[in-house]
Amino acid sequence: MSGKAPTEFAPAATTTTTANNTASAPNTQGSKSKSEAQLKKEQAKAAKAAKRAAKKYDAPDTPAGPPATPKSQQQQGKQQSQASAHGGKKERRGSQGQKAPAVKETALPVHSKKPAVPPKQVGLFGHLYGMDRRHGIEGAAKEVHPAVLALGVQMSSWVVCGSTARCAAMLLCFKSVIQSYNTPVGTSLARHMVQHVLSPQIDYLKSHRPLSVSMGNAIRHLKALIVSIDPSTPDEEAKQFLCDAIDTFIRERITAASTIIAGTAADKIIDGDVILVYANSSVVCKALLLAHSQGKKFRVVVVDSSPLFEGKCLAKDLARADVQTSYYVVTGAAHAVREATKVFLGAAAMMANGRLYSRVGNAIVAMLAKRLDVPVLVLCESYKFTERVSLDSIVNNEVGPAEDLLASLGIMKQPGDATEGGAADEDQLETREARITKWKDTPNLQMLNIMHDLTPAEYITMVVTEFGCLPPSSVPAVLRNLEGTGKENKP
To answer: For this UniProt entry, what's an example GO CC term (predicted)?
Structure first.
């Protein structure tokens, strides 16, 4: 070869030209001008693509370096275009076999998709988390009555817990709201109270805990009474009518109904029975105490679970009344059911398809009892019946704070709790707290504190109501009967 390979490569050069190549190129001028035109177009396209990429992507991990000059950018564009024109080769060799500098391909960063739910929420129940649960009165609307403010805090702190207690307390608070209400000038009570007075109270209670089925039924009953009042009715007469209606609802639908149900359930208890109950239910406790006051000899097995351990209160009340009582946690339910002759369960709601909606764990007890042919009796007032149909406990449920679940398991120390066993136990507790209480910072760790479950109708023997002992399939018939006979006298 007549020409020698250059000993040093220029940064923008990717090929070397020999003398033979120059001699055998007849149209060098035309091909050179054509390649320069294509190069300019490719450079313009590359500049536009770089601008779009700079706006769309941000590269925090890109190593810092001196800013590129227009000349260096042009040289880099030439390298990329020439490399693509020669078959996309990353390396080129000179005439003496030396490697030419390879053009590095820079991959644009790809942003990962955002998760559908926050990382500390269980995806299957993500639709149940909703807004953050309120634990105080900060930020409450000025229209909220002081009695309702206090009830909301009591609900979120589990002081007022059961569906019956929450419904009765809510109605009493609404009675105080009605008594302190004054109709503005230019409007009427029937048109103003529901939207501007009652709705803020309901929204505030919802921010602490979701409303139970019984609370929803009572609210609809009260709203129907308010809108049915004649606008020409004096305020004092209308307010007295509503307060009397609330008292009637509590007296007939809650107090009298639970008394009738307790008497019917007590008649089902005979000497030598072993009654298994789950968690705590006011009507179940009333039935057991009534049967004991009648002189019947029976034993009670209380099955309980975290995080609330409501069954402890029921076991204490029965023990104070000299009722022979045993206490199990839900992990021992399989052994407890073998001792039982009957199972009494409370209810948060009875669905239109005959399924029981109650504290989580009731379905486990009912299914174990069904397997051993132990009759299951559900004690439920009719104001807890609903027209809704549920097939599972995922679509509609309540998710409690995960911290309550950790605290009930002894992982988190409650304020004011004392430790026993000396300094060694305290050090162990502090080490465990330091590791577990920061569960939100631990990857791949989720806590689910689900509050209710759904018991299929085939596991329920009968439902004890104020109308008598009925099969679970009779819920729609009871609702139709209540619609026909539950009319109130209007003022």
So the answer is: cytosol
Q: Which domain holds residue 458?
A: 269-398+451-489
Amino acid at 452: H
pLDDT digits (tens, 9 = 90+) for 375-428: 999 999 999 999 999 999 888 899 888 878 777 665 544 444 444 444 445 555
Is residue 473 domain-shared with residue 334, that is, in the same domain?
A: yes
Q: Roughly what angle, to the nearest 10 degrees, separates helices 146-156 and 199-208?
A: 20
User: Contacts for 12-18 with beta carbons within 8 Å, 24 or more apart?
Assistant: 12/75, 12/78, 12/79, 13/100, 14/79, 14/82, 14/83, 14/92, 14/100, 14/103, 15/82, 15/92, 15/100, 16/94, 16/95, 18/95
Q: pTM of the predicted model, to two decimals?
A: 0.72
Kindly report, residue by residue over 122-143, the tens digit of the pLDDT.
888 888 887 677 888 888 889 9
- Give the whole-angstrom CA distance, residue 436 versus residue 272: 46
- Closest among 4, 103, 112, 105 to 57, alpha carbons compared: 112
How far is it, in rounded angstroms, from Cα 335 to Cα 60? 60
Alpha-carbon distance values, 168 to 336, 347, 383 (Å): 33, 15, 12
User: Alpha-carbon distance 377 to 48, whole Å?
Assistant: 75
Alpha-carbon distance of 102 to 80, in angstroms, equals 10
Alpha-carbon span 221 to 301, nearest angstrom: 37
- Count CB atoms within 10 A of the CB of residue 103: 19
Rg (CA), the chain: 38
Q: Rounded to whole angstroms, how far apart are CA atoms 90 and 83?
A: 7
> Which is it for strands 324-329 and 299-304: parallel, antiparallel or unpaired?
parallel
Q: In which element (H, E) is residue 142 found?
A: none
In 117-271, beta strands by DSSP E: none
Number of domains in the chain: 2
- Determine which helix (DSSP H) or strand (DSSP E) holds 119, and give its type and residue range: none
Say if residues 145 and 201 touch (Cβ distance below 8 Å).
yes
Asked if residue 170 lies in contact with residue 218, where contact means CB atoms within 8 angstroms, the answer is yes
- Indicate if 223 and 368 belong to the same structural domain: no
For residue 37, the model assigns a pLDDT of: 76
User: Distance between CA 74 and CA 419 in Å, rounded?
Assistant: 73
Cβ–Cβ < 8 Å for 367, 333:
no
